[in-house]
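Class, discuss our next protein.
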Amino acid sequence: MTKLNEEQIENLAIDLLQNQGFEYIHGKDIAPDSDNPLRTNFDEVILKPILQDAISRLNPDIPNSAKDDALNQVLRVFSPDLMVANKEFHNLLTNGVNVIYRKGGSDRGDYVRLIDFDNIQNNDFKAVNQFTITNNGQNKRPDVILFVNGLPLVVIEFKNPADENATINSAFRQIGTYKEAIPNLFFYNSFIIISDGLEAKAGTISSGFSRFMSWKSADGKNLASNLDPRLETMVLGMLNKETLLDLIRHFITFEESSFTDPKTNIKTITTVKKLASYHQYYAVKKAVSSVIAATSKNGDQKGGVIWHTQGSGKSLSMVFTTAKLVLDRKSTRLNSSHQII
């Protein structure tokens, strides 16, 4: 059997993404030197006109001056510490950008939405390949970047399965090179996918290779066969618009841990960004649905239980469940006296 090369894998992924409703664009067609530029310099990683249009569309009641302020806050995200910048942006993305403007003779605080998480089709989804980024004299070109409202939220890197020396681990190492050379791309990154066409795994900017995980169901009901290409399963199950935005909003968390050197008494705080695995994602969705049904007007007022095997991430699942219930509180009208067991 003839093995696919890297270009064919990239084209396959793009076809799958187009089937999910992503608009495909080649990077050179929107480059600063193209006939239809969506950025002014190669060091820019945000498609500013797209983001500007989304902010205007999603926030019709916000004054233009406040919209401009929100846009500038997003563009100014920066830190020498990649994790600090990434966490700051994730907060803006999921909670909205805090702005203050004058109304009725007094200052008013409000939030500007960058994404419409409730009306998925009210967002702009683009899959862009060969997107050249320049930083400090270095040019890098990730294979595929997924933009939502002009924001580069997912980076996908492929390696050639026909090359015996190029493995999925090679794709992981390439991501490490990108983080060093073009860190500004990863200020805005929600998660990363690495693939050799057959195998595909997802992780975050802080994930070691062993923490990159496969997505094993295309529909949340049936496990994919070991013979099914993992890349296709991941695109169908993880990168469909609904799941993608749900993951970004509810299933990413930042955990801090501290270590104090017994000799120097110096405390070091480390932050790790975590993304739900497929089994956590579907378990939490079922648990939330169960609680909503139980606490409804005609429900039995009993919570639910998620059974876990040891080491399957039950603590993290509970964090995701609680967060999702809190965010869904108004729409589900959960009574504050109800408990999750």
Remarks:
- Confidence is low (pLDDT under 50) at residues 330-341.
- The radius of gyration is 21 Å.
- DSSP finds eleven helices and twelve strands in the chain.
- The first helix runs from residue 6 to 19.
